[in-house]
Amino acid sequence: MTLSLTVPDILVARAKAGDLEALEGLYRAFETPVYNLARRICRAPEDAEDVVQETFLEVVKSIRHYRGEGHLWGWIRQIASSKALMRLRREKLRATDEFVEETAGSPPASLGARIDLERAFAHLTETSRAVVWLHDVEGFTHEEIAEQMGRTVSFSKSQLARAHARLRRLLVPEPEAR
Amino acid sequence: MTMHCTMDDLVAVRDGEGSVSARRHVEECGECRGEMEALYQRVAQLKALPALRPARDRWHVVRDAITAERARRRRWTRAGLALAAALVGLMVVRPLLQSPLLADELAQAKLESAQLENTLQDADPEGRVVSGREAELTARLEDQIALLDGRLGQLSERALEEGQVVDLWRQRVDLMQQLVQVRVTRANYVGL
Fold first, then answer.
1. Which chain B positions have a beta carbon within 8 Å of A17's beta carbon?
2. What is the mean pLDDT of chain B?
3. Nearest-5° angle of CA A155, CA A157, CA A159?
4. Residue A23: its chain B contacts at CB < 8 A?
5. What pTM, to 2 d.p., does this model score?
6. Are A52 and B38 in contact (CB < 8 Å)?
7. Is pLDDT larger for residue A163 or for residue B79?
């Protein structure tokens, strides 16, 4: 994913002052990365769109508190991941997660050995996807993930290892899989 | 039999947290080095996945929410000023409430109203996604409360004597309860 995530300081300053055009400028600049993050975690596109909406409502509400320390995308990304994980919790999908994991134990024949990474990733549970994406792609620490998920650091670490083991099994033909 | 690294070991070694024995094993075992390389490649491929883009533009929803919130703040500012004026008025004319019962009822209604205001503020329901119907209901209730606060600020001494002020405060409590129901209870119900 190659996106320009830099916005002019003047745009941020105007957004902090409540300028509607500047706020739209921020929305346009970060809409796709926020959606991408949310969509990698949430199963339904509509849920990811809701996360985008909730994230920017929070950005609008809180941007006056943003002090320009660190990259703006880092700040927005924190809000987006929090909203996405909150949505996971809210929908209480953990019980469903277990079911998905069980049924996904034997990949359907249509997936076969040539299943690509995107489809394999989509085959993980929401929790596993969230941990892999936030840790390995977005660069969150286990401590940050654990805090946002309301779980322990050990949980985040074990989810990451389990997810990679599962990805490996989905991507590598069974006789070769460890 | 050689004991290869588990995925937990590999991920830990990659993240600089693996045990000495696991690190040494990865260095010495070609198979586990291959697994480690595959792990790096998988993550690199994940990072290289094309960005997913939303099918629908939600900016108009965000913009409408900003506009509605600004209008709401303006209404509450006006209402707050009216309420402050009413409270000052009440302090001045409170001795006119001769009946101890009415005075107690007034104090109780004011207390309930303040508690409901606090509930609303503590819940911080701003920025949540609400349906159009709820947004409309919220705006209507806030308008009614603002209107009521305006009347409280303009009460005549006679109205105070007749206990009308108590009725108005009771109405305010009732409207505040409805507002809390819409803006807090429903949001909690759906887990927002």
1. none
2. 79
3. 65
4. 62-63, 66
5. 0.65
6. no
7. A163
Which tokens belong to A73? 């995308």
Last residue of a domain, one of A91, A114, A147: A91
Check residue B22 and give its pLDDT.
Answer: 92
Block residue for tokens 């916005």: A7
Residue A105 lies in a domain: yes
Domain that holds residue A160: 93-173
Contact A36 B43 (CB under 8 A): no
pLDDT digits (tens, 9 = 90+) for A112-125: 434 588 889 999 99
Joined tokens for residue B185:
């209870």
Cα–Cα distance measured from residue A138 to residue A131, given in angstroms and rounded to the nearest whole number:
10
pLDDT tens-place string over residues B130-178? 666 777 788 788 878 878 887 877 776 666 666 788 888 889 899 988 8
Closest CA to B139 of B60, B68, B63: B68
Tokens, residue A169: 């099994």
Task: State phi, psi for A142 to the nearest 5 degrees.
Answer: -65, -35
Nearest CA to A4 among A33, A24, A38?
A33
Q: Could you tell me if A64 and A52 lie in one domain?
A: yes
The answer to whether residues A1 and A77 belong to one domain is yes
Quick one: pLDDT band at residue B8, thresholds 50, 70, 90?
Answer: very high
